[in-house]
Amino acid sequence: MLDRRSPLGTSARIDCVQLRASESPDFSLTQLSGLTKGFEKDVATAIAKMPPRIGVVLNNGSETLFRIGPKQVWIVGAPDYLLPRDLALTHAAISLSHSRVRLLIEGSAARNLLSKGMALDFHPSAFEPGSFALTGLDHTPVMVHCTGAESFHLYALSTFAVSVWDWLIDASLEYRAAA
Known about the structure:
With 179 residues, the protein is α+β, with helices and mostly antiparallel strands.
């Protein structure tokens, strides 16, 4: 198996009092699309119950399921995660692990930082832990996942990772200057 190499290298880190950001590389990402009427039941039997609607995340302890479409789910797991064979044989599955970079953004300024570049309401009552959105950041497609009150995972295409990181560096200047 090929080793994953980050397009960001090893120096991608923002660390100040109000904001921390870094790459969070240890994950696998699989997109699964349903090809039969029993898709939701098949997923529930093999992994976990499907999230009830798009934009909601369910975590079963080892995998996180993002419902990205009516019969589509992203499954995030450990780096060595393998989709159960029954699902792989009966539905369309593709690994997206090597095509995405995951960034961790956390701290009291995380919501304000992200609201600078995304047309989303980041107020805690509107974008709660366990929710996600497929959106754009500075003309780049991303998925943002609220993992806690002040923490987020941002998934970006590897080919745009440097642009997303450069945006984060620029947008975080006011917080780093205040430190």
